[in-house]
Amino acid sequence: AGPGSRVAVEGPAGGFVLPRRLPRELLFAAGGTGIAPLRSMLASSLARPAAPSITLIYSARTPEEFAFAREWRRLARLGRIRLVMTATREAGAAWRGRRGRVQPAWVAALVKGRDPLCFVCGPDAFVAGLMDMLRAAGVPARKVRRERY
User: Fold this and answer.
1) Which residues pair with 23 in a beta bridge?
2) Which of 5, 65, 75, 81 is the most exposed place for a label (fewest CB within 10 A)?
């Protein structure tokens, strides 16, 4: 196909999307590159006139592997999101985030007294672990959307 060619385009497919009417609380949990679809959801949510309360849990192997880290920290400093970043492998003394895999106690503390709609994206093991942690923290399955790879 060259310049001026017609192409057929379809809209996005699948169910890993924000609802038209946002709830008051959202929790996004990303493992590694699973942050990519969540970034656009988060930005879209913050752009709404009545932006919901947003929590972002983001896990990567090393501090260097966090995509958009400055953006997340800036949003957290401005009070736009609650942020938990954890490096699961090598992290030098300069790293100020958490260390190790996401822990059930962290998830329980982040959802306690809240009723978030949750979006979880990342590798299979990350998604499965977060699903278990959310369930154990009392989040009903109908309030959790997932995308794994």
Assistant:
1) none
2) 5
Residue matched to tokens 């962290």? 106
Quick one: average pLDDT of 40-56? 95
Structure tokens, 23: 């709830």
Per-residue pLDDT band for 12 (boundaries 50, 70, 90) equals low
User: What DSSP character marks residue 53?
Assistant: E
Q: Which residues pair with 31 in a beta bridge?
A: 59
Whether residue 98 contacts residue 86, with contact meaning beta carbons closer than 8 Å, is answered with yes
Query: Which residues contact residue 29 at a Cβ distance below 8 angstroms, ignoring those fewer than 6 apart?
Result: 56, 57, 58, 59, 102, 118, 119, 120, 121, 122, 130
Q: Where are the beta strands (DSSP E) in the chain?
A: 25-31, 53-60, 81-87, 98-99, 117-122, 144-148
User: Average model confidence (pLDDT) for the chain?
Assistant: 94
- Please compute the mean of the pLDDT values over residues 73-93 and round it to a whole number: 94
